[in-house]
C-alpha cells in the first residue's frame, strides 16, 4: 500500500467513525420516538458512499447507497421510520462498518503476504510521487550532462586557436604555447572521459529508478482460480482456470489498472462462454470447461491471451443485437468480422438477455477497452481455435519508457508508439486505389484508408517528392490506417513525458520526448485512426517554453477522504490546493481575498451551505462571479445537473464517472 493509499484509508477511518457515531445516534433517537433530522441522516450516508468510492471499498459503498435510498424515500414521505425500516437501517449500518473492515483487510492482505515471503531487502513500498521526483531529477542530470558538450566544444576551440598561433622568435613563448596546447588536449580528453562516465552513470540511475515501480506480472493473476470455480458453481456450471507461469516484471501502475479488466474478462468467459454441463455433453465436450490465461512479454509489451473452450462467438446474434442498439445503421451491410467483433467493446452492448450481478448491463467489455486504451494498448476478441473465444490484449510493460518510431511530417519530427505500427512501406502513387471516401491501400484483401500525417496534425504539407514515399501502417483494436510521412528517422526507447507543458490541443497527442535537438510530440494512435483527414486543418497550439504560472484551486467538500484524494491528484499536477470543509467556509475564504484563487471544485451535499448555495453566492458577488466553478456530486440526476448548470457552474462531474483523468482534464480546460 503506497503512502497516498495509506493516507486515504486513515482519513476514511476517521470520517467513518465520525459519521457512524451520528448515524447510531439518529437510529437511537428514531427508536425512542425523538425527532430525527432526515436530511442530516441522509447526508451522512451520502458522504460515506462517496468516501468509500474514493478509497475503493465497494461493500461499504453499496451499503451506504442502500441506506441513503431508504432515507431519501423517508424524506419524501414515501416510507415511514417504523420498526421494520429501522431494523433494515441498523443492518445496513453494520454492513457499512463490516465492509470497511473486511475490504481494508483484503486490501492489506497481499502486502502482508508479500512481506511475509520476502526479506526486508527484497521489497519496500515506495510512493509514486517519490519515484516521479526521482525521474525529474534524472532528467535534470541529463540536461546538465548535455552541457558537457558545450564545454568540450569550448576546449576544442581554445586548443585550435593556440595551435594556430603564428611561430615567433621568442623561444620561451613558443614553449609556453606548446605546453598550453598539450594541456588543452589533455583537458579535452579528460572532459570526454568524464562525459562518457556521466552518461553511463545517468543511464544506470534512470534504469534503476524505473525498476522501483516494477512488480512481478504473476501478481496480476493471484487468487482468480477460486473466483472462476465459485462463479461457475453459482451458475450451475463447472469451470477451471489454468495459467501459464511468467517471470517478467511490469510497472505496478499497469498491473493495478489491469486488475478489474482481467476480472471482467474472466467473469465474461464463465457467464457467456462456458456452457452448462448438459449442453457441453451433447456437444461431445467434457462437462467442465477450461479457461486459460497465457501472459507473455515481447519488446516492451505485456501480452495476455485469454481463451475458453465454450460456445464461441455467434456473428449473427452479435449483428442482430448491434442493429437493435443502433450500432449498425438500418440497411447498412454486414460489417467485416473484425469490425463486428469490435462492437462487443461498445458501451451498453451485451448479448445477454438477462441482467444479473455479472452480465447483461453491457459495461464489462467497454471497461476493458477503455482501460486498455488509456494504457495505450489494444484489445481484440476473436473466435477460438478450434472452439470457444479468444481475447488478446497488449499493453506497455512500463508507462514512462516506450519504444517509439520517429518520423518527419509537416516540417517537424514526431513519434509513434512502435507497438501500434503494423508495418512501414514505401509507396508510389499508383499503389493507391481511389474511392468516394478517398485513397485506400489494399492490404490482405482489406481496403485500408490513406492519409497525410501532416493533414491530420493540421501542419503545412511538404512538397510531395518524386517517386516512392515512406508510409507507416498503424493499427488499433478494430481498424488500420496508412499514414504518409516525409521520412522515417529511427526507432528508440525513450521516456515519455507529460504533453500539457507544451501542447494545449492534446486529442492527438499522447506525450513528449526529449531529443538531442529539442522536443518531439508522441502521437496517440487511436486518435489518429479516428481523426478526420478531410476536415479543416487544426494546428496544435504550442506554448512557449516559459515557466508556467502555478494556479490555485479551492476544494470545498465536507468529506475529509474526498478532500484528501482531490488535493493529492491536483498537487501531483502542479496546482496549489486550498481546502474548505463546507460551502460557508469556502465562501468566507473567497471573500477574504487573502490568497488569489483561480478555480473552485465544490461538492453539492454539504452542511451549513451546500454546493448550490455556494455557487449562487459566487455568481451574485461582482468580485467573484467570473470565477470558474466545478460541481462534483454522487447524485447524477438530470434535474440536479440542469440546476447546477443553470446556476452558472462551468462543469458538472458526477462521482460515478470520476477518475483522476476526468478531474485533471476538466480543471485544465478552465484554468
Automatic annotation (TrEMBL):
Q: Which SMART domains match?
A: CheW (SM00260), HATPase_c (SM00387), HPT (SM00073), REC (SM00448)
Q: Where is the composition biased (Basic and acidic residues)?
A: 99-108
Against PROSITE patterns, the record matches this protein to: CHEW (PS50851), HIS_KIN (PS50109), HPT (PS50894), RESPONSE_REGULATORY (PS50110)
Q: Which InterPro entries match?
A: Bact_Chemotaxis_CheA, CheW-like_dom_sf, CheW-lke_dom, CheY-like_superfamily, HATPase_C_sf, HATPase_dom, His_kinase_dom, HPT_dom_sf
Q: Which Pfam families match?
A: CheW, HATPase_c, Hpt, Response_reg
Kindly indicate whether the keyword RNA-binding belongs to this entry.
no
- The segment(s) forming the Response regulatory domain are 552-670
Where the record annotates domain HPt, the positions are 1-103
Residue ranges with Low complexity bias: 111-121
What segment(s) does the record annotate as region Disordered? 99-123
Q: Which key words tag this protein in UniProt? A: Kinase, Phosphoprotein, Transferase, Two-component regulatory system
EC number of this enzyme: 2.7.13.3
The modified positions for 4-aspartylphosphate read 603
According to UniProt, the name of this protein is histidine kinase
Using the record's annotation, list all stretches that form the Histidine kinase domain.
Answer: 136-399
Q: Does the keyword Transferase apply?
A: yes
Taking every annotated instance into account, which residue ranges of this chain make up the domain CheW-like?
A: 401-534
Q: Which residues carry this modification: Phosphohistidine?
A: 46
Taxonomic source organism = Sphingomonas molluscorum
Q: Which reaction does it catalyse?
A: ATP + protein L-histidine = ADP + protein N-phospho-L-histidine
